[in-house]
Design goal:
The complex is a heterodimer of chains A (about 230) and B (about 775). Chain A has about 230 residues and is α/β, with parallel strands linked by helices. In chain A, about 25% of the residues lie in helices and about 25% in strands. In chain B, α5 packs parallel to α22, α8 runs parallel beside α9 and α21 runs parallel beside α22. The longest helix of chain B is centred in the first third of the chain and has 21 residues. The chains are: A alpha/beta (about 230), B alpha+beta (about 775).
């Protein structure tokens, strides 16, 4: 099982994503932005960061990168793709997922342990969760406010394409408390919070019982391994 | 058609300088004094060219040359034992000190000021402060692994404070987050003494394998001098001499053009590019460009390597072609590095910088001659011995005077004033407790730290609000480092010698409370004008106090930074020596949280409480008072305490540990409770009786050498036995209670006997509410 982890200049969480993949038991294949080749990977993670500095709309330049063009083609053919934070922004800019992400409502970058509800488990990246399971994983973004036009929102809600919703606190002003989406086919998932920061006890979010012991993010990577094996 | 500009027309070359000795030069405007200008002429045997003058002026500025502080900083290198040097791979004087932490790993860390730029332009000033310290760490061959910021702002009531707070915090957030470095802690303090001179200190720590150590030197003739990274622009010209080395004058012109502008993306790419260059073994020496830009990099690389250099300055890649050679030499454009590359490695070097799309230009080469030659389109504009620029700057023995006001200040103690205590009025005392813990300096700072990424990298084991930040260095073994920084300007104002020691003691205790073993010290010494003899006395006292205390604790200073001229007009800030302590922990899984996690654990106070309220948060918040003498420091006691914590941690006896500092026991109890929302019952009667203090002192005294710990019942006997065996005073003062449920922390109560039963949710709302209400 090979999972590609993409690095654009300015990507920050690629090492974390690679660690999460390794801990789940898959092999990591680093994918470089300028290399239009997916090296026969079984799935791809687009990690967080500030690709190319994100001085334009976040993810807008990364959406044009040679590696992204290949990912879009492969995703349309069914390859599992997970976009985390900046990776979610890239998926939206690439039109693999609808809508847009804008500056947080309070104008500040925010880093916090965020509670989410998993609202769809029929995807390559969420099948190891229970439906409506409540999980806590870190969130950290400056431009994480999800927006879409009324018609798109209606379609997302109607077709069950909202994969994750913020619970208790909506940290960035996202419409309908949307934290993450899936595509119709269920192979592409994007979300603002960071599952790769909640895969190793001791370095994740606090849980009710113990400091930094939250590992809810690990299920994303277990899910994709299951999905690829069963495919 | 416009006329072609002749780049060498009117150029002040070495030849011109030799024939026009009487030409008037703007040495004064560049911040030099008459005797310094005369000395440059003496060194060169002629007047300097305008380019040479630019170089000397920036390199001989207070910020770069440490001319007022040098004679005092020496003691950090002198008051050391061989034992202290045992783990020191690189000591003071390099870009940052390097400490051997075992298993083939080393860490490098340093704290630096960016105070002056941050007042003028808070966002860019603070942002580039992060960028600068990170490049210092990178220059040592290390991968930067974390940052922290020590911030001091003016009074919260002053409308200008919000401008500076928002600018500084967003600047750090913007730059640090984009670099992908976890921000693991720091300090935020408000005091009107920082109104016109906020302090923005930035710390970074990096990790490297022993064999990857890099030094800033150019020693092999023939090696190429390559400037790479961002292009050189007109930003930050003369920043160190104009900004950091002069007092702000409210009537003077605004100095905005001297502040640099940061591009964190360029820096992130530069970090990854440099690490690959190191890995490929293609750089023989490297220096970052920060203060004093190319002037600093060329002269220091050559001077450190005992060689010379020949540079063609027109080859520098510029953002603006109209820049003059003087401006290029002084520019402090960010995100630039100078590498010394052997000719045989040039191809490999180019392949890597091109992979990262980093621009570079070959400026010249290292020569076997004690000379730095800089040409501009073939004309010689600099011809100097590099050491005279980089290292043989002026050394001042500035006048020192015992402050006229200090005896009166020391006499104005809490006791002499007879400041009212509410010992017999539980309601009033409870109100004071809430007032203290929710005062701006004692309140929760997560409004600040939540704007920083503390997860990136996946190695953060502890971060704010725990006592120390801690990061894992080795994923194989769990080996890691803890860092805490502290400074208490109020104590330093009362007694700078003791104040510096108190800062060290607190940082040391914080690191020990996390389970790590304190190993090394860095500092950022923020003071007023060195031209004021009373400020120099404070500096003399603080440095002596710190060096003496380091010797006694047996941990060396590995590097640091001095920031003078933190004053507007005649009013200096409180002396604020920020002290950072780095500790090592064999496995971060052993780290100790700063709060209670379980019900039914015993709560012990280690150490002794004296009636020490002078300079305390209680005196400041409740009585708006600063006077008297700071708490007594017992370094032997601190050492015994740290050894005990280390021993107890290794045996796994400690469920939590929280050091006592500003706000005293009251603050520690509240924070320990709120960390995980666990209530407690606390009683102070035995403490008051044993230590002979009243209830106010029991709650708010800031006596040093104290730590609050919680211990599971099963470990109780063992733990108390350990304390007794090591002669560390120990007293059970409470027991942890129910953990609050949900967002309302339902059911959790902090009950302090003879004071009040506080609903944890109410305490949390007060403690957490203050800063967002002021700035949110």
């Amino acid at each position: 099982m090979k999972i590609g982890v993409v690095t654009f200049p300015g990507t920050l969480d690629d090492r974390d994503a690679a660690r999460a993949v390794r801990l789940a038991g898959a092999e990591v294949v680093p994918l470089w932005h300028a290399d239009a080749n997916l090296h026969k990977v079984d799935a791809v993670v687009l990690p967080g960061g500030f690709s190319y500095g994100d001085y334009l709309r976040c993810g807008a330049i990364a959406a044009q990168a040679p590696v992204t063009q290949e990912i879009v083609k492969a995703a349309n053919g069914g390859l599992p793709v997970l976009g985390i934070c900046n990776g979610f922004q890239v998926l939206v800019e690439s039109h693999l997922l609808p809508g847009g992400l804008i500056r947080n409502e309070n104008q500040h970058f925010i880093c916090r342990d965020q509670k989410l509800r998993v609202e769809n488990v029929d995807t390559a990246w969420t099948n190891a969760f229970e439906l409506n399971q409540e999980i806590t994983i870190p969130l950290k973004n400056g431009e994480g406010g999800y927006i879409a036009d009324a018609e798109t929102l209606k379609r997302l809600e109607g077709e069950g394409l909202v994969a994750f919703r913020y619970l208790e606190v909506n940290p960035n002003g996202s419409m309908n408390d949307i934290a993450g989406l899936r595509n119709e086919r269920g192979n592409v998932v994007g979300l603002m919070p960071h599952p790769e920061h909640a895969v190793e006890a001791g370095f994740g979010p606090d849980t009710f019982g113990t400091m930094r012991s939250g590992v809810d993010g690990a299920k994303f990577f277990e899910s994709v391994i299951k999905a690829v094996v069963n495919a | 058609m416009s006329e072609l500009v002749n780049p060498v027309a009117n150029l002040d070359t070495v030849a011109v300088a030799a024939t026009t000795p009487e030409k008037a030069q703007p040495w004064k405007e560049l911040g030099l004094k008459q005797d310094e200008y005369d000395r440059i002429k003496e060194i060169l045997g002629r007047r300097p060219t305008s380019s040479e003058l630019a170089m000397y002026s920036v390199m001989w500025s207070e910020h770069c040359s440490y001319k007022s502080s040098k004679i005092y900083l020496r003691q950090f290198g002198e008051k050391v034992t061989d034992e202290m040097k045992k783990h020191l791979m690189v000591g003071m004087g390099e870009n940052a000190g390097v400490v051997d932490i075992g298993e083939g790993w080393a860490v490098t860390f340093k704290v630096e000021s960016h105070n002056h730029p941050s007042y003028i332009e808070p966002f860019q000033g603070a942002a580039t402060g992060v960028g600068g310290i990170v490049r210092d760490i990178l220059t040592m061959g290390a991968r930067p692994i974390a940052v922290m910021d020590q911030l001091r702002f003016g009074a919260v009531e002053n409308p200008d404070t919000a401008r500076v707070v928002h600018g500084v915090v967003s600047g750090i957030s913007f730059y640090g987050n984009c670099l992908g470095l976890p921000n693991i802690g720091g300090e935020t303090v408000f005091d009107k003494v920082y109104q016109g001179n906020p302090l923005v200190n930035a710390l970074s720590v990096g990790a490297l394998r022993h064999e990857d150590l890099k030094l800033a030197k150019a020693s092999n003739p023939g090696d190429l001098v390559i400037l790479f990274g961002a292009r050189t622009g007109a930003d930050g010209i003369g920043g160190v001499s104009v900004l950091a080395s002069e007092t702000f004058d409210s009537t003077g012109p605004t100095k905005r053009p001297a502040v640099q502008v940061g591009d964190p993306f360029a820096e992130k790419v530069l970090i990854e590019c440099c690490l690959e260059l190191y890995h490929a073994g293609v750089v023989a020496g490297i220096q970052d460009l920060g203060g004093a830009g190319i002037s600093c990099a060329t002269s220091e690389l050559a001077s450190n390597g005992g060689a010379g250099m020949r540079v063609d300055l027109e080859k520098v890649l510029k953002r603006d072609e109209s820049l003059t050679p003087e401006e290029i030499l002084m520019s402090e454009s960010q995100e630039r590095m100078m590498g010394i590359v052997p000719k045989k490695d040039l191809k490999a070097f180019i392949a890597l910088v091109e992979k990262w799309e980093v621009e570079y230009s070959i400026l010249g080469e290292v020569i076997n001659e004690d000379r730095l030659y800089i040409n501009w389109h073939g004309e010689e504009i600099v011809n100097v011995p590099p050491r005279t620029v980089a290292h043989d700057g002026p050394v001042y023995h500035r006048p020192v005077a015992y402050p006229t006001w200090i005896d009166a200040l020391n006499g104005d103690s809490v006791a002499n004033r007879g400041l009212a205590r509410a010992n017999d009025n539980a309601t009033e005392l409870a109100a004071q407790l809430v007032q203290v813990v929710s005062s701006p300096n004692q309140a929760d700072k997560s409004w600040v730290t939540d704007q920083y990424d503390h997860y990136v990298g996946g190695n953060t084991a502890l971060a704010q609000p725990d006592d120390s930040g801690m990061v894992r260095v080795s994923e194989e073994t769990g080996l890691g480092v803890a860092i805490a920084t502290d400074a208490n300007g109020r104590f330093c104002q009362l007694d700078p010698y003791a104040g510096a020691q108190l800062a060290l003691a607190e940082a040391y205790r914080n690191v020990a409370s996390s389970g790590a073993n304190p190993m090394a010290v860095t500092n950022c010494l923020n003071f007023g004008s060195p031209e004021n003899p009373e400020v120099m006395w404070q500096f003399q006292q603080a440095t002596a106090g710190l060096a003496d205390a380091c010797l006694e604790l047996g941990i060396p200073v590995t590097g640091g930074n001095v920031s003078f001229y933190n004053q507007t007009g005649d009013v200096a800030i409180h002396p604020t020596p920020v002290v950072g302590v780095l500790g090592v922990i064999d496995d971060v899984a052993r780290r100790i949280p700063s709060g209670w996690q379980d019900e039914g654990h015993n709560i012990y106070l280690l150490g002794v409480t004296r009636d020490e309220l002078d300079g305390s948060a209680w005196a400041g918040v409740i009585h708006d008072h600063l006077g008297g003498k700071p708490p007594v420091v017992s370094l032997a006691g601190e050492k015994a305490l740290a050894d005990l914590l280390q021993g107890a941690s290794l045996q796994g006896l400690l469920a939590s540990a929280h050091d006592l500092a500003d706000g005293g026991l009251a603050q520690a109890v509240v924070e320990s409770s709120l960390r995980f929302g666990v209530g407690a019952r606390v009683w102070l009667g035995e403490l008051m009786e044993r230590d002979g203090v009243d209830l106010t002192a029991a709650l708010f005294s800031e006596s040093t050498g104290r730590v609050l710990v919680s211990v599971g019942r099963e470990d109780d006997v063992k733990f108390v036995g350990l304390c007794e065996a090591r002669n560390v005073p120990v007293l059970r003062i409470g027991v942890t209670d129910v953990k609050g449920v949900g967002a309302g922390l339902d059911g959790a109560v902090l009950a302090i006997k003879d004071v009040a039963d506080f609903d944890l949710a109410d305490l949390r709302d007060s403690w957490k509410g203050t800063i967002p209400e002021l700035f949110g």
